[in-house]
What does this fold into?
Amino acid sequence: MARAANKPLAIVTGASSGIGRELAKQCAENGFDLLIAADDPAIEDAAMELRGLGAAVDTMQADLATLEGVDKLCAALKGRPVDALLANAGHGLGHGFLDQDFKDARHVIDTNITGTLYLIQKVGRGMRDRKQGRILITGSIAGFTPGAYQAVYNGTKAFIDSFSFALRSELRDCGITVTCLMPGATDTEFFERAGMMDTKIGQSKKDSPAMVAEVGFNAMMRSEGDVVSGWKNKLQTAVASVTPAGVLAEQHRKMAEPGSGTH
It folds into this structure.
């Protein structure tokens, strides 16, 4: 697709739906061209919507849990510099850890951590060479809580939250900003895909993905280190910071245990 040479380029992963799609819309509405990626054919529908907002959009359908998928995405850049990387791809998995298929658990780890870090390293090196760039990483307030019946997912987000702060510190003098977006439960396909629709948290009222994305995008553009979307989530993280881990795990169990929902 033809691109205006003077428009900045953003990569958004997990952009076929939910927070990722809304982040891509924020980029399009604020003057970025886009390379968007997901493992879902719906990425093409997202591209059509984004082009309607005036952005030049390229798509890549790839499994970003794999190094090969990330390499495929980076090859699609064809050498064009990346001004903003919005590393949003991720998914969850409900039920008890011993009851999960390990291939499914590993895919959560490889998507949320391995593929995310590999992409950040590959794109971040180019940003460092140019001494310019913005990185937004979608973490989660789940990273503050031991996630009984969601143990692998919460563990990956604890890793990502921590990694984001560390990377920001390493790059503080390199012209690159790193922002960690930490949403709470959001009205996306996340809980359905994770097999958690019979739980209290799966049936609870959730935040709008458009609101979450706007908060995250604005924080990235202001070069903020981290942002928690929604006042209830801010309160929850404050409480979590002074609550014993065992208590947090028990509280999470009551929300995420299979069959805990009310309807």
Observations:
- The longest strand covers residues 176-182.
- Residues 102-130 form the longest helix (29 residues).
